[in-house]
Model the fold of this input.
Amino acid sequence: QLQLVESGGGLVQAGGSLRLSCAASGRTSPHYAMGWFRQVPGKEREFVAFIGAQGVNTLLEDPVKDRFTISRDNVKNTMYLQMNSLKPEDTAVYYCAAAQKAYRSTWRSSGAYDYWGQGTQVTVSS
Done:
């Protein structure tokens, strides 16, 4: 079993920055692909960013691709999401996820991930 815990969320003004962390414990492995998703009340959980097991392959959703950066440190068993130039529409609960096996066509799909954290709230004020 793998446990994931997000941290780093909070309240920030528009234009500000936050760095989210996702710490993995338990049966950690550098072979897990990982991703970030976000969700607001009443809406579907949406894809934000993906990073491959060794950090070579990354994918960010269009609304954030010029502002966010995804990275991972397999020695520390931690994944990060650096969020810059935050906008009010970025307000959501952010979740990290891990997949034992993820084909390229499934990177954006929440159903492809096997483990999920509990989420961390990000609120961007206008």
Notes: The longest strand covers residues 18-26. Residues 3 and 9 are 18 Å apart (CA to CA).
